[in-house]
């Protein structure tokens, strides 16, 4: 890890401070790490809910248990694959809220 040589003071109002802490926590980061990512042009993703990967694992297990031959099975495999893609895409979309109404 590169040593941090520079210190920067940032003044925030109460609402901005609350948003910073809320967004950093949602991304599973410290505020300083969150801000460094923003500076680099990356908006951190929210951390998926704890059961996210468990659901994906169960869907994969269902797909693995299905026989290949039947038409309904093929349709079900296709739909499960679509659901898996939707879950993965939800994970990759940034849903950090920048609420400026406060």
Question: What's this entry about, in short?
Answer:
Helices cover 57% and strands 0% of the residues. With 102 residues, the protein is mainly α.
Structure description:
The protein has 102 residues and is mostly helical. The chain has one domain. Helix content is 57%, strand content 0%. It is built from 4 helices and no strands. The protein has helices at 14-26, 31-39, 52-65, 71-92. α1 (14-26) crosses α2 and α3 packs antiparallel against α4 (71-92). The radius of gyration is 20 Å and the shape is elongated. Residues 91-97 have low confidence and may be disordered.
Question: What is this structure's SSE topology?
Answer:
Layout: H1 14-26, H2 31-39, H3 52-65, H4 71-92
| Gyration radius over CA | 20 Å
> Beta-strand level of the residues, as a percent range?
under 5%
Number of domains: 1
Count of separate DSSP helical elements: 4
Silhouette: elongated
Largest sheet: none
Descriptive labels:
mainly alpha; 102 residues; 4 helices
């Amino acid at each position: 890890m590169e040593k941090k040589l520079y210190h920067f003071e940032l003044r925030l109002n109460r609402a901005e401070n609350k948003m910073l802490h809320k967004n950093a926590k949602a991304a599973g980061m410290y505020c300083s790490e969150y801000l460094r990512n923003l500076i680099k042009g990356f908006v951190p993703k929210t951390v998926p809910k704890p059961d996210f990967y468990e659901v994906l694992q169960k869907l994969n297990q269902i797909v693995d248990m299905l026989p290949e031959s039947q038409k309904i099975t093929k349709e079900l495999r296709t739909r499960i694959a679509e659901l898996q893609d939707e879950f993965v895409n939800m994970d990759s979309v940034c849903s950090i809220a920048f609420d400026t109404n406060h």
